[in-house]
Amino acid sequence: MKYLRYIFILIIAIVILWIDLPLTIPIKFNIFNQKINMAIRPLVIDFTIGETKLYKDFSTKLGLDLRGGSHLVFEADITTTKLDDLQDALNSARDVIERRVNMFGVSEPVVQTIKTGSKYRISVDMPGVFDVAQASALIGQTAQLNFRTQPSEMTESVATESAGVGSLNLTELTNLTGKDVKKSSVKFNSQTGQPEVALEFTSAGGKLFAKITKDNINKPVGIFLDEMLISAPTVQQEIADGNAVISGNFTTEGAKQLSVAINSGALPLPIYLVEQRSVGPSLGAIEVERSVFAGIVGLTMVMIFMVSYYGRLGMIANLALTIYGLISFAIFRSVPIVLTLPGVAGFVLSIGMAVDSNILIFERIKEEIRKGKSFRSALKLGFGRAIDAIKDANITTLLVAFILFNPLNWEFLPQFGLVRGFALTLAIGVGTSLFTGVFITKRLIDLFYKYE
């Protein structure tokens, strides 16, 4: 049982190192006259089970200030909005845009409202997105979804050619619209493997859709998005379960964008793009390199201090700190966390708390040794007495991180921007430091330290 535990720990360690792998490592050597030519590549999960396709890469995601991306500014048309409802409409538009950006695959966007004189604008910063035309088209569209059928009196002889509709003449509006759609998602057809957009209707929408399909068996039903025909499937039978599928010659990206537009809903007021540009990293490559170098220098000085002051215990603490860094980085890549400068600051702050945990433990151990206790007894008592202080300090910090992250979207706290990135990396770092400071350090002492 003991060996199984070590094997399990070894497997976890290999997975963590594999996730943290920054680049491909080539392996070439000769053995027994055989040439070995292989490479260890960063971990990527890519497989399909039935209709479920799972893809996950573990690359590092950088924010706009570290990586660059797109900057868009939209101006809101407030002419038809009442003054009392203006602020709510702007906040709602901002929320809708942020949802669209997140569904577009961008993590930690910066979306904020700006007032310039009598004009109201919404700025959008999207890290890693350089196709500003595609992004602005997705964000700015109104996403009005409706369903249309052929007029009941229509016969094949009077079918007319309509723009974007062909000879189907889908002009009869139904009562079924985008507000009746509960959720949209991308699925893959089990027979053809082609991507499709699945629609799940609300209870009321499901009843309307059941009636539409019942009345139009063997007839087409047009699905329109912003007056553009998306799909016109022929109804084979009544669909009473409130679910439908939009099929067609979709690419995976095209199906994803359609699903995003349907899910995000309509903007509460019209917006117009007034500025768009691609931006480079605001810190610049040289500044990023200097920041990394400064972090390495600072961490090295901390490690030197730990070894010089605590001796062998300090070396174990440094090993635990290295393990802490590897675990935290693996979590950042797995979630994934978009690293911005505030996010990096939160991580660096958590490193200080990880060192602080080890110092508290070691000082308690030294106190017990000065009282004449054996090292084994001092280790047990030192950990036991330090754990309460460590828990209190970390729980307090986690509470602050929770307030800054504001998951409940309280209006009197920050709701958007880079503050959440700082809070998230701080919380992950503190949680990881609590684990490594208490559990990993003790296991390393048991493994490497000779009791006296």
Topology, number of strands: 17
The named CATH superfamily of the largest domain: Multidrug efflux transporter AcrB transmembrane domain
Look at the helices and sheets and give the structural class.
Answer: alpha+beta
Biggest sheet character:
4 strands, antiparallel
How much of the sequence is in beta strands? 15-25%
Describe the structure.
- By secondary structure, the chain is α+β, with helices and mostly antiparallel strands.
- The protein folds into 4 domains: 2-42, no CATH class; 69-142 and 270-279, Alpha-Beta Plaits, CATH 3.30.70.3400; 145-264, Gyrase A, domain 2 (2-Layer Sandwich); 284-448, Multidrug efflux transporter AcrB transmembrane domain (Multidrug efflux transporter AcrB transmembrane fold, Up-down Bundle).
- Helix content is 48%, strand content 23%.
- It contains 11 helices and 17 strands.
- The strands form 6 sheets. A 4-stranded antiparallel beta sheet has the order 7-8-6-16. The chain has a 4-stranded antiparallel beta sheet with strand order 10-9-13-14, covered by helices on one side.
- Helix 9 runs antiparallel to helix 10 and helix 9 (341-370) packs parallel to helix 11 (419-448).
- The two termini are 28 Å apart.
Topology:
Elements: H1 2-20, E1 25-31, E2 34-40, E3 44-49, E4 52-57, E5 61-62, H2 64-67, E6 69-76, H3 86-103, E7 110-116, E8 119-127, H4 132-140, E9 145-149, E10 172-177, E11 181-188, E12 195-201, H5 203-215, E13 221-225, E14 228-231, E15 243-246, H6 252-264, E16 271-279, H7 284-310, H8 312-334, E17 338-339, H9 341-370, H10 375-405, H11 419-448
Helix pairs in contact: 1-8, 3-6, 7-8, 8-9, 8-11, 9-10, 9-11, 10-11
